[in-house]
Amino acid sequence: MARPNIIFVMSDDHAAHAISAYGSRVNHTPHMDRLAAEGVRMDAVYCTNSICSPSRATILTGTYSHVNGVSSIWTEMDYRVPTFIEALHEGGYRTAMFGKWHLGEHGISLPRGFDAWKIFPGQGDYVDPVMIDGDGPATVPGYATDIVTDLSLDWIGSLATDQPFCLMLHHKAPHRPWIPDQKHKHLYADGSIPEPETFFDDYASRSKAVRGVRMTIADDMGADDLKQEVPEHLRGPENRETRMRWKYQIYMRDYLQCIQSIDDNVGRLLGYLDEHGLADNTLVVYTSDQGFFLGDHGWFDKRLMFDQSLQMPMLVRWPAEIPAGSRCEAIITNVDFAATFLDIAGIDADVALPTSQGRSFRPLLRGEQVEDWADAAYYRYWEHDDPIHAAPAHYGIRTADYKLIYYYGAGLGVPGASDVVFEPEWELYDLHADPTEVRNVADDPAYAQIKAELQVKLGQYQARYQDEPYRGPGTSHPDWGPYDEELAERVATYVRQIRASS
Ligand SMILES: [Ca+2]
């Protein structure tokens, strides 16, 4: 059988609980659900650093942030670390990348290993976006989610059929500032969107680190996000609850309308594969670079290790191997994607991508049990004292039963991470007794033994991935090194072009 095509559809900040295949209470996504019905719904896929650029660098390289250098949206990729795309290209695949790239200085670096690419600079715009390709920047008329799909279908249509292809189709949506397409503006009438169970979380028992984040809908979601000022009668601490409810409806309406366009375009893509006889031997993935808080714990945004932010939705269809309507509960991270795609392409990742820290989950996609598969996901968020979100640096592990988080209290002297110091704190959640993660039991004597065991496991996972425990303010990570000077200059040229054209 011919080697399969790989289509990797990734949106930006699309939480699993806004996909009906995952039991969403707030929206309906029939085309994404079709992928789940005809393939596998992955229920425990986690990002290893819940923010845009780091997740993208991890997916491309199969490495943690401390290896590829992209610890934050401000840090440059270490171009010495190869990507699975380069390995696929080397191995005979045609490759393309369309949409949100968000790597490099100001979110712009040159994609490597792609036959064709066209990307948004930085975060990109929703309407009539500027896009960059080998000829430089130009405005593309239309709505971003449609445009990225158009470019992708045009490219697939341009290929000769005898060579397999890998397409990265990366939507800007539903990232801030949530600008929907006009045709979806009638959806979700005011007051119609249910609030999450933890909407009025009081953060009792939580760390100071978590209580200090500035991601609350009530007080931190501003006029830019809402596209209007908060009315006078909703201002002030006495109107907090009413204000939250008002903002939530606007926020979620816009967010879900953006997702509706993605779902429509997933439908277009699947329709195209059907019409062109490509469905059977094409692996289609739908995922998001990380999750998002949809009013959960009173928050929006991501970064923290709570499940709504940590989990990546992942639906995979490949009729040749994956049983329809199946589920997979094995713990997988975005570090594992690269090795998996190479495995599916019949390329030995140990040879073609020796820097990869991931492991192929292809047997898990087929529904097989893998006895020695990882029983935890290791996570590390590096940004610290970000003045906008104030999310603290932290690391931790999630098993099927528990989550242990260490807010170590300072940055590490890397770009984007300050050395502001506060008291280190632990959080521990019992995910069966407390599935919504509202009761921190790190100081509960009844959990002392479990906490001690999880601390050992955390150390083991850090050692496995050759990450360093926090050792004090100003200590840079030992693996941090310079990046490719020549490539950096070419990137800088593009940045200058962008600035000149805007
Ligand atoms: Ca993102």
TrEMBL record:
Keyword check for Cell inner membrane, yes or no: no
Q: Which Pfam families match?
A: Sulfatase
Q: Domain named Sulfatase N-terminal: which ranges?
A: 4-347
Ion transport as a keyword of this entry, yes or no, is: no
Entry keywords, A to Z: Glycoprotein, Hydrolase, Signal
Q: What InterPro entries does the entry give? A: Alkaline_phosphatase_core_sf, Sulfatase_CS, Sulfatase_N
Q: Hey, which family's this protein in? A: Belongs to the sulfatase family.
Q: What is this protein called?
A: Sulfatase
Q: What is the lineage of its organism?
A: Bacteria, Bacillati, Actinomycetota, Actinomycetes, Micrococcales
